[in-house]
Structure formats: C-alpha cells, structure tokens
Amino acid sequence: MTSLVDASVGTTASLARIGGERAFRRRLMEMGLLPGTPVRVVRRANGGGLVEVEVRGCHLTLRASEAQALFLDS
Amino acid sequence: MTATRLQPATGAPLVAVAGNPNVGKTSLFNRLTGQDLKVTNYPGVTVERHVGHTDLPDAGHVEIIDIPGTYSLSGRSAEEQIAIQAIAGLEGNQTPDLLVMAVDSTQLSRNLYLVLQVLELGVPTILALTMTDMLERRKQRIDLDGLTKVLGVPVVRMVCHRGEGVDELRATMDRVLADPSLGRPGWLWRPEHPMLLEDIDQVGRAVPDNWVGDDQDRRWAFGLWALLSLADDDELNAIPDELRKAVAERHALAEESDREIEADVIRGRYEWIDSHVADAVISTAPPVKTRTERVDSILLHPVLGFGIFVVAMGVLFQSLFSWADPMIGLIETIFNELAALIEGSMGPSLVRDFIVDGVIAGVGSVVVFLPQILLLFFMICLMEDTGYMARVAFLMDRIMRKIGLHGRAFVPMLSGFACAVPAVMATRTMERRRDRMVTMMAVPLMSCSARLPVYTLLIAALFPPANVFGFVPVQGGLMVAMYVFSTLIALAAAGIMSKFVFRGVEVPLLLELPPYRVPHWMSVVRMMWQRASLFLQEAGRVILVCTIVLWALLTFPRDPALETDYEALRSQATSTLTGDALDERLAVLDGEEGSDIFLQSYGARMGKLIEPAVEPLGFDWKIGVGLIGAFAAREVFVSTMGVVYGVGDGADEESTTLREHIRDETYTDGKPVYTPLVALSLMVFIALSCQCMSTLAAVYRETHTWKWPTFMFGYMTALAWVMSFAVYQGGKALGLG
Q: Were both Cys, which of A36, B9, B409, B683 would link to B405 (CB 3.0–4.6 Å)?
C-alpha cells in the first residue's frame, strides 16, 4: 500500500484504505471514495501541500496532511 | 426539530430544487422561475432561501425554492442540516409537494448518492439531468429509459443554458403534481447486514413522532440519517437527547463487533448505485484528457498559474479601486445637481435642509456603493461560473489557512482595500458560517479607499516632504506603512478570531475543482442585480436612517445664540474694506460663523462629551467631533474638519487652507493641537476603528441581527483606542510628543 501523498502524479490505482478523522472519512466516502474505488493522482501543488485526485469523474483536492491517511493498492 | 408545516399564503404547491454543489442547480432554478425572486433566510440560520414562482399549464401557480447545494443529507453542522429540514418540512419549513433534483450527468454515481437519500424521505421526486452537453462532448450519453426504470422516478435530460428540456421538465412537474405516486420510486434501498438493519430500526424508534408522523419509511430514513449525522461534536439543532443516546449506543455496540456503521451504509448505497446504474452511462469513445485538465496545467502551474492569478486579482482590485470612479463620480454629480436644484427652487427652511442634507444625501450615500457592488459581483460571478473561484481557493489555501481561513476568503479580503461594504457582501461565497463570520469581522480592518483622503490630509499637513535614510520619502513611506500596518492587523485579527471567537468544528479541506465552463450572462446579470437590490433594500434603509440621524445631530439646535456678533463684523467689514479684500474677509467670517454654529450642535457637544476618552490618544474635542461626523463615511472626516476649522464644507484633502488650519490649530495655552505624533495616532485610530455606518449596515444585512454589527463596532473601537493609546503615549515617553 502506498499513501496518496507518496503516489506519483499520473498513477491510477484503487483505494485500499481510508483513514483519518471520522467526519472527514465519512465525507470522503459520501463523495464516492471507497475501498476499491479507482483514483487517479492528477497533480500536486503548493509545494506538495495539496494533492488533486480524480474520482468518479470528479476532481478533488486534499491537503497533504489529510491525504496521508489515504492508501492506494500498489 | 418540530414538524410545524406552514401552508403557503397562496396555497400554491411548493417545488424544491436540490442537488450537489456545482451541478448547475442555480441555472436550473433560474430557468424554472421568472425574474421575480424573493430572498429570505432559512429559519434560525444565515443561509439564504431563494423563492421564485412559475405558472405550470395544469397545476397553475407554483412556488419554487432553492435548497443549498450539498453532497449528502447527513452532516454535522447546522448549515448542512438545512437541506434535510427543508426537504422533510421540519423546523418551520413547509414540506415540498415536489422535489426536482439537479443531477450532473457527468458525475452520475456521486450525484445519485444524494438522490438515494432523498428518495427515502418519500417526497415525490423528478431527476433533472444537467450538463448533458458536456457529457456528449465526452462521447458519452445516458440511457434515460434505463435510468428511469431502475430508479422508478421520472428523469428529464436538460441543457440548462440553452433552455433544452425545460418544457419537458415543466410538463413532468405537472404530471407528478397531479399524481404524486409517479414521483415515488416504489422501492427503497435497504442494507443487507441484519445487524445494520437492527441498528437503524432501534434508532428509528427514538426518532420523535413529530418528525415522521406514522410514516414508517420516513421513521426508518430519519433513523439512518441520525446514525450517520449525530456525533459528540456535532452542531446540529433540536436533536432530542433520547435520539443521541440511541445513536451512541448503537455505535458502541457496532464497535464491539468490529463493524463501522457509517462505512457499511455508504458502501452499501454506492454498491447499489454501481451495480444498478453503471449500465446507464454509455461510452462510445475511450476517455481522453479533458479540456479542463489541460487548462488547469496552466492555471494551477506553480509559476505561470500564480502569475495569471496575480494579474486576475490585479484587474479585480483595479476595477474596484479606480474603474468604479467615473460611475461613482457620476452618481455624486447627479445627487449634487438634484440637491442644487431643490436648494434653488425652495426658500431656506428646515424642510429644505432636511430634504437636501438628510434625504438626498442619505439616498446618495446608499446609491454611491452600487458601482463597486455591481463590479465586484460581476467579477465574482464570472469567477464562480467559469470555475476559476475554486482555483483561487486552491492557490490561496496555503496562505489563508495560516490564519485559519478558507482560500476563498482571499477575494473578500482583497476587496476590503477598496471598500468594506461590497467585501462584506462577498463573504457570501464561502460555504461555512464560521469562515464567513471570521472574514466579515476582519475585512473592515483593511485600509479601504475612504481612509485614503484622511491619510493624505494628515500626512501632507504634518509631515515634511523629505527623505529618511536619504532615499525613502517620508510621506510616501508613511502611506505604505499605514497599508502594511492595517493589513497585518487584519490578518492577525482573522487568525485570533478563528482561534478563539468562531472556533467551530475543524473541517479538512475537500475542494472540488469543477470543470471550466463558459459563463451564462443571464445568470451573471441576475446575480448582480439580486445583490444590488438586496443591498438597496436592506442595508440601504439602515444607511438612510443613519444619515438622517447624523444630519439632525449636526444640525440642531438651529440658530443657536453665538458669542460673536457676525452681522456686526460683516457690516464693519463692508464699511472699511472693498474689492477682493472685502470678499476674502466675508468668506472668512462665513466660515467662522459656520464653525461656531456647528460647534453648538448636539453632535459637537457629544464630541466635547467624549473628549476625556480621546484625550489620552492625543486628540482634542474638535477631532472628536470630526470622528463623530466620520461615522457617515470615513472620508467625511475631512469635510467635517473643514467645517470645524471654518474652511467650509467643500474642503477636500488637497485643500491647502485646511492643511494650514490644521498646522495652526492650538490649545488655549498656545501649544499646537497637531503634532506628527498626534497625526500618527489619529491615522492609527482611523485605520482600526469602525467609523463607518455603511459597513455596519452591510454586516446587519448579511447576519440579520444587530449582535454582529455591535460586536464589530465594539472590538474595532477598543482595538483602535488601545493601539492609538500605545502610539501616542509610547511616542510621548520616547520624547517624540
């Protein structure tokens, strides 16, 4: 498993695990980020402070501190 | 939550438009309603509730409300609670007869998650598929019949900005209003796990009867909602303890057996969606890198993107700061002409003064804000509609999060340099109440353009045009210093307030970057008009009343007894002087008389009253009078001082006579009133105090309570006093006085 912050730009992989604080995890899942959902890492910005991903046709941005708790299948 | 179901005054059916954020819900709403739009607030919260209406062929007149965009009905903030309250008809909301769900066809599965939740509540529903043109551009389409069959409710395909599908949607609305069963799916999602069913059932029993009546499906839906929404740290309103207890018990029980209720429910819903609806999207070509991604690789580029951002913000700032000027000038000219016309056609009287200096000046000081409000909202709508606003938040996240704010707070903060009134209104663009409040409270600390004349006057009058260190001009340097100082204070205030005053629940950033779209001019114009008319109606009233009160304070008592007999002095001058010398002498006498009369007014007496309060800051009571007058608008400080010093009310910051009077003003013992230190202290006071009734009126308009304007006035005045005190007393201690 690779953490989302460490995954290189362009990677497409399935989400393996979603960690983090309860409300945040629930919101992510409600937006369709579930274990098994394919995720593509689109870009990293702000000196690595932000990670943009594409999930279910939607582009979402997370802070690196929170993306750390998301893991992709390697 | 209580289930008082208000009936509409008209008895007309109520249609609610709901959906995820960024799905074209607003343009759908605009397409369905006419121009006549009412904006009120949802009960108890400062979230706007838009109400429009339309006439359907069969159902006739229907009211249409717009429900705030949300990804889910469950949530833990009071604002997220609005959607479920409005859809289920709780807390003073009327239950809608029909729900139109705006569903982004390019992100079907995520949108259907909300649809599943909504269908559980039993309100007849129609799906309006938006963005279908974008879907087709991606060489995809949606099998409408298949989707209708699977979901069991009508689905209409739309391209809102071209008006496609609107007639069909209206016809479908008519059909469902006539036969609500058409809008009910006939099936409901149920989890498979028996323990989960038991959880929902148990919590459902604790759901208050007045939320659900004897509708068992609805009881079940609220049980599920409570399981996903209630938490120790939620900010939800009107939740009975019994329900909280039931939810906590079931969560604890689930934890024992290593189950996670939320994950199980959400996964269950998505599994249903993925297995039933996946076939509904038909692709005829492999996916390609979208246009949006190509544009983003430029606009979000660390260097190039940042450069473009700086230019865009420069344009925004420049437009507020200077491009609005000709319009503002025109408005001022019109109102001055109108005042002159009335002055010319009426004899001098109290009524005339009231009309000219009270009413016309008051209306003028409201209308004068329109150019900046219209311009700012034009830019904001453009940025929102194109999708650039989300990128602004993206680019500014790093800086703004340091002071505990959302990246979106950048635009209102920047606008604050031009004028706090449109900037306060622009805080609307932020989703969370706490972000809005923090920004709103900090924005008036940014040095707005109305402070500029005050700085200019004081710097020019008290500081020599020299250089320090040989190359830094004192005057220009001071001006820059004032801007830097007020910006730092504003940022610090925002940081402190987000830490201590509006703590709220810490929400991680989860920013959606919507695809770039061509803006729809109709909705831009409509939004500008809406904002402007709300300002005129609500803030305008307050500003008008304040102007009249201020006018009365500075006008009464009329014809007070004066110590100096100006008539005698005038006739003496006429008999001893001729030509230019006479004119000059008469002008001086007019000014002095005006000053004498003014200083007898109740407002000026208030200035004397507050003298002990401003004395430690180095101000005399006449400056106190100027500060009271400046409450109308900060730049009025300049003309008020003009009247006070007998230069006349036409004096502006470039007036050399006014500058001389300021330099020459002395106390009775001959010491000058103004020293550079006093000027510095006064500039600090003007920079930090809330000497602006229009800002307070705008905050009142946004928060719908006097609590926050009062708080703002209180904290800013205290801050200004303390900082001025520190500057003046500190300076004196250093021997600068």
A: B409
Query: Considering only the top CATH level, what class is B14-183?
Result: alpha beta
State the pLDDT at residue B160. Answer: 83
* Beta-bridge partners for B54: B62
Structural domain containing residue A63: 2-72
B28 neighbors B524 (Cβ within 8 angstroms): no
B290 to chain A, any CB pair closer than 8 A? The answer is no
Smallest Cα distance from B677 to chain A, Å: 43
DSSP label at residue B154 = -
Provide the sign of the torsion angle of the four alpha carbons B4, B8, B13, B14, taken in this order. negative
| Domain ranges for chain B | 14-183, 194-283
- pLDDT tens figures, B335-393: 999 999 998 888 888 888 888 888 888 898 889 889 998 999 899 889 988 999 899 98
At A42, which CATH number? Answer: 2.30.30.90
**CB B297 to CB A24 under 8 A?**
no
pLDDT at position B737 is: 64
Residue of chain B whose alpha carbon sits nearest to that of A36: B267
Q: State the count of interchain CB pairs (< 8 A) between A and B.
A: 99
Handedness of CA B521, B525, B531, B534 (dihedral sign): negative
Contact status of B293 with chain A (Cβ, < 8 Å): yes
How many Cα atoms are found within 13 Å in the side-chain-facing hemisphere of B383? 23
Residue B234 has pLDDT above 60, yes or no: yes
Q: Is the peptide bond before B557 cis (omega within 30 degrees of 0)?
A: yes
pLDDT of residue B682: 95
Instruction: Judge whether A16 is closer than 8 Å to chain B, CB to CB.
Output: no
Using pLDDT thresholds of 50, 70 and 90, give the confidence band for residue B575.
confident
Q: Is B677 near chain A, with CB under 8 Å?
A: no
β-pair type (B125-130, B98-104): parallel
SS3 per residue for B518-558: CCCHHHHHHHHHHHHHHHHHHHHHHHHHHHHHHHHHHHCCC
Q: Considering its fold, how many domains does chain A have in total?
A: 1
Closest CA to B406 of B510, B516, B302: B510
The answer to whether residues B274 and B109 touch, using CB atoms and an 8 Å cutoff, is yes
Q: Which residues pair with B125 in a beta bridge?
A: B99
